[in-house]
Amino acid sequence: MNIPTTYDGFRQYWANNQQTAISSYIAKNKSFIPNLLPEQAVQMPAVQLAYMLEKRFGQQAFFQALNPDNTVESPVKDFQDGAWLKTVNMVGINVRTIGSFWNVVKYTLTLPEAQSSVHLLPIWECGVVASLYGIASWNINPEFYDAELAIAFPHLNTVEKQLKVVVNLLHLMGKTVGMDVIPHTDRYSEVSLANPQFFEWLQRREFEIINHTENLHEKVQERILDFLYQYGGTISEYYPRKKEDFFNNSIYPEADRLRFLFGEKTNLEARNKRRNQLINHLFSEGYEPVPATMAPPYRGLEVDFREEAKTVDDDGRVWRDYVITKPEGMSRVFGPLARVKLYECKNDNQDWEIDFTKPRTEVWEYMADKYLKIAQTYHFDFMRGDMSHVQMNPAGTPTDPDVYYDIHKYIKNAIRQAKPYFGYFAESFLAPPNTMAYGVEEDHLEGSDTDTTLGDLQSMVVGTNQFVSEFARYHYLLRTRTFAPNFTIMTADKDDPRFDEFYLKGNELRMFIGLFLTDMPSYMALGFEQRDPHPTPAPNEHYTKLYVFQLSEGEKATHGKYVWGQNGVLFGNLTALKCISEKINNDIKHQKTKWLIEPDFNGEQKVIAWTQAENPKYIFVINLSLTQISVHEALHSILTDKILLFSTEQKSDFENNISIILPIPDLKEGECRIYQV
């Protein structure tokens, strides 16, 4: 069959061959549909997708999955911990780029068996600038509702039901599914306004923070009750008049309080209007949640005086950004976000110091309970911990961290009581000590019971000494630490004009390592498969990162839908990798690696080679350099009499053919090969 090599060729290929491709998928010839552009997959009619899944998995299994009251068991249900995450190849999906939860299932048709895990970026209602990471409430984001699905299957008439069914279907397709766990909310979220005692507050007058005392939340509680006295609740019923009772979840449950403060859950417009009125009431007196911070020293805030640090919103409110008073290299303040208050403060917070010996246990229990219910309701298999690199204690990680050492650890272990296999994937970058976190980040990850971590290989140019050296260090950490670093191909946070240089070349190499280095997990963001090289920045609509929020003005603004790349060459090359993965995955998955030529800690030796530690069947060889390299003696002796099964530089169809090449040719720039033992 003649496989196209251009974007338009692939589009036409699907138009001409989709019936054959669908029949092959239904017959389970492969775990995915080769040559189907993700862009085209998400445009597939709902009824066509339903037909394919019903025929592939059987009518009974499909319709059981399509019932939101049923649970399709997780592919990893038999594990007793999250160790399975340590070798998984994960794909991250910003649902906003593809429009709905239902489209996640369509996109998954393009993922081979080896890419067995799906991470959904945050799924909750959003606050300021509609940031996915600024949770406004614990309600599922209604923008991810699929009207076409509801027409095809009228019983799926809420976004909650659709999410349940989507996770069911992903499980049926053999994929594990993860959610974000976020230790902060939008600065004036329903969560923070219904529970001021769970957050830290400040009071600002123009350019001055006039109050940031320990219990300022009590003043905020009083102002909220004043608001209710003036404007009443949204419903006519009794409510406690004392703040000690109104904000006590044992006396006045949060669900009742939310309904009284903001209105019915189903009326988002009315809730947002009411919340805005309450924000006005607090803002007029200068009360704001203390913004979330990143990197040492974390604490100590002052108002940013610069004119560009001022924002005037649609209601005429003048916001000021904040800065760390004594910043270090990576210090950041996230104005629109408010982190939950996990510990008491020292000396009434006069010096912005935290007392790490006094955890506020009610807050820990509240957060764990919320995420436990979400994990159980929607059948998630793992959590991705947002800002897992945050370690605010200047003393670093203790030798024996207790249960209140880290909020992600606490939440993971609370969920594991109900779901023993539940795993924890940390967002941390393995930075040097005291850079992103106090102390040694690797110690923090182990102290947090991390199963696997993101790392930062996506932020390095392939072929550089830095890339090779860090790759070597990551594999050393894999062998010596209790967590597994990822070989990260691309993340949604790095698909941004600032990071174009990382993806100009070497993308096939990234995918090759991600698929075939089986004892190391990998992470890839949606959109990578078609991503165009951008020697100069493309319009904002071409970057998934810029759909994490919704801005209509400024340098991060987007206008219209996400625009897929048209890189047919890359897509064709990655499809070839997926196809060879299908042929050999059963022989190599979960196998430990035996290095024949291991990555060089100095970053100078650019050729690597490995096979399987037990029962070796294949040898993988890569030129990590983006220049041609001669095959040296060590490699010659390794590859003598071996059969070349695949090369990224040999443009032939490897579905049915293998070839022998002697003598062994030089490795071209970024070339990857598979030899059969």
**Alpha plus pi helix count:** 20
CATH architectural designation of the largest domain: Alpha-Beta Barrel
List the domain count as a whole number: 3
Quaternary organisation: single chain
**Residue share in helix:** 25-40%
Q: If you consult CATH, what is the topology of the largest domain?
A: TIM Barrel
Which class best fits the helix and strand makeup? alpha/beta
Shape: globular
Q: Largest sheet, order of strands side by side?
A: 21-20-19-18-5-2-1-23-22
CATH class of the largest domain: Alpha Beta
The largest sheet is:
9 strands, parallel
CATH superfamily of the largest domain: Glycosidases
Low-confidence stretches: none
The share of residues in extended strands comes to 15-25%
What is the overall pLDDT average?
95
Commentary on this structure:
The protein is of the alpha/beta class. The chain has three domains: 7-184 and 361-587, Alpha-Beta Barrel (TIM Barrel), CATH 3.20.20.80; 186-341, no CATH class; 592-676, Immunoglobulin-like, CATH 2.60.40. The protein contains 20 helices and 28 strands. Strands 21-20-19-18-5-2-1-23-22 form a nine-stranded parallel sheet. Strand 18, helix 15 and strand 19 (423-426) form a beta-alpha-beta unit. Helix 1 (7-26) packs parallel to helix 19 (568-588) and helix 3 crosses helix 4. The chain is globular, with a radius of gyration of 26 Å. The mean pLDDT is 95.
Keywords:
TIM Barrel, Immunoglobulin-like, nine-stranded parallel beta sheet, 20 helices, globular
Per-chain topology:
Layout: H1 7-26, H2 38-41, H3 46-57, H4 59-65, E1 89-93, H5 95-98, H6 101-108, E2 117-120, E3 124-126, E4 135-140, H7 147-152, H8 159-172, E5 176-181, E6 184-186, H9 190-194, E7 201-205, E8 208-211, H10 216-231, H11 243-246, H12 254-262, H13 268-283, E9 287-289, E10 291-294, E11 301-303, E12 310-312, E13 318-320, E14 322-324, E15 332-339, E16 343-345, E17 354-359, H14 361-378, E18 382-385, H15 407-416, E19 423-426, H16 441-447, E20 452-453, H17 465-480, E21 484-485, E22 487-490, H18 507-516, E23 522-525, H19 568-588, E24 593-597, E25 607-612, E26 618-623, H20 633-639, E27 643-647, E28 672-676
Parallel strand pairs: 1-2, 1-23, 2-5, 5-18, 18-19, 19-20, 20-21, 22-23
Antiparallel strand pairs: 3-4, 6-15, 7-8, 7-9, 10-15, 11-14, 12-13, 16-17, 24-25, 25-26, 26-28, 27-28
Helix pairs in contact: 1-3, 1-19, 3-4, 6-8, 14-15, 18-19
